[in-house]
Amino acid sequence: MQEHLKTNILNFKWPSSTPVIYLSLEDIEGSHPIHRSKFSKQIKEAFPDTDISGLEHIFTTFTQEIPNAPTIKINLVKDKELRIYKQFLKHQLKTYFLEKGYIVVKNFVRDVQVWMPSKKGNTTDYNLYYKFSFKILFATLTDLPELVVSYDGTSKVLTKSVKEIEETEFIKRCVYGQKTFNYQMNLDTEDKEEFYNSIEFTQAFPIFNLQLARALNIPIEEPDRPKNRYQKYVLLITTFAKNYLFTEEFKALFPFKQDAFIDVPGNRINHINPNLGLLEFGKDQYGNKRNHLVPKKAMNILNPYRRPGNQNIKIFFICHTSHKDSVLSFYQNLKEGVNTEKNYYKGLEAYVNIKATASKEHFIEFTNENDPIPEIVEQLESLTFDHENVKYAAFYISPFDKFTPDPDDREIYIRIKELFLNESIVTQVVDYEKMIVNIQDQYNFQFSLQNMALAIHAKLGGAPWKLAVTDKKELVIGVGAFTNQGENRRYIASAFSFQNNGLFRNFEYFNQNETELLAGSILKAIRDFTSVAQADKVVIHFYKEMSYEELQPIIDGMNKLKLGVPLYILNINKTEAEDMIAYDVNWGDKLMPISGTYIRIGVNKFLLFNNARYPNDIYYADTDGYPFPIKIKISSPDDDAFEDVEVIEELLTQVYQFSRLYWKSLRQQNVPITIKYPEMVAQIAPRFENGVPEDAKDTLWFL
């Protein structure tokens, strides 16, 4: 079936006559700043009696006349003035929707975002809004200006005002009129103080957040997670465009070439050969290699690539006293398999090819579910472990799920994970309530057991599978991040170094601003790798664009090592609820493009689709999901890095391959483990009281 890819872009025409804008040296009412980076020759000449090169900003009212003010006619050929034209168009967008009475804000990448009130989903506690963002591009996919229309999810605005709420410490952002503000903002400038003092608390309405909702006893619903996000996304942007953009009034500002989202130009589309994502599993009894493309299918018929290094594995449980009778049923299913007609999980040994037995003498039970640590520590200190001959795995049966309202309850598992990691014991959490439901539903329970068995196998040091195609000698280093919203602090994990076969080496983690330590850990990974093998290239997968401060120490270090090999940096971003996507209208109503499809959206910028939809293969929608594409920008500090035209596809293929090595679940991931694994460490490790033990930095305990 031939694909037909469309994207969330509307083409509009270049203006027949570009606007004349008014300029001012003063920040007058209704004016907008023009940053010095946009000072073109024409702008400088507009102020013949003033040297504006030393100013940070000048100002414009755009097309609103200022008496006796200098003007320029924007020249769209000049890059600096094209950026002013984009600023003008964003101003028009904002003004248009403000005049219609809608809330208009900037999203996190400072694009115009419009909040549309919902007709459904409102309650007595809050009103629901759908959020749509606009990004303006010039000749990115086509030769015309482009308006990217994206759906950014929803927000709930409480019906209670700030004045009616006692627990103000839980208030974060608020809607005030047609804009939003941070209630907890630092009052460190006169402007902020003046704004804060002007707020009428009866007219400021907090935006829903979990802490505030719990404090106000607002019912917390499970988040809406549609099976196919493409369907919801495309339906919403199509309906929004039809109702609000394809009108004569809006098209007077943005004259669309056609009232429809554009097709992706054929010369921008390419595909990675699915066979390059082939995975190697355990050899058969005759020593023949066994390969497969889909882990979910392969694990039912093939053995894992490599067992954990210790032949003796023992499992024990940590649970509340009232739950211990249920643990036996759980263990029997884990060890022996499930009782269902369609049986895809026949037990731990059959599924991941390891011998494991219960260690009854290490069973730990506690009575205080809100503070179990003292009881667990007391019992742990009385136990002895044979670490020389046995590898242990502990299953913690948690009385609380990850959505439990009390943050202290959510932290218990972190404390337990650290406690046992210090004893060289890996842990696996099991949600008690979900476990009870699953035991009753044996068919669906087996899929949870498959994922647990897979994760335990990897945590114990095994390798369920690896890449089959490994003809390059490359070192790949991943750097990921996690932002702790409670602390408003970002942590990063780095030096997740991988051989070209995708097998993990080790990791470190840091605070966001520890740039030199980050560079040092990356250089250590390079030294360790190149001391035993010559690398063809060094590749860094980074969760954002690398700054000069982050990159320069690495370049200096590589020069000192005299490696003489190119360095490539891939900035890899999720496109979870914003930015550019594409969809295949020839795949019925499922819409998701084939796995390995990539689209060039700029100079060395790409959308890459990582999923489990392969040509001429059955797609298991219920279990495989519909992941969105990731956005990749490729750069290099080396002048001749891109002389070989094939290097781009090689680097994209590498990302595609590394997204197939996730061992926490059988579901295909859209983000490579070089980003995913560091993010998981950055989420957990900084919450440890004494840090990660050194001997645990080369294991996958965090899965």
Automatic annotation (TrEMBL):
Superkingdom, natural source: Bacteria
SMART domains documented for this protein: Piwi
Gene3D superfamilies hit by this protein: 3.40.50.2300, Ribonuclease H-like superfamily/Ribonuclease H
Protein name: Protein argonaute
Domain Piwi, residue spans: 399-690
SUPFAM superfamilies, per the entry: Ribonuclease H-like (SSF53098)
Pfam families given in the database record: Piwi
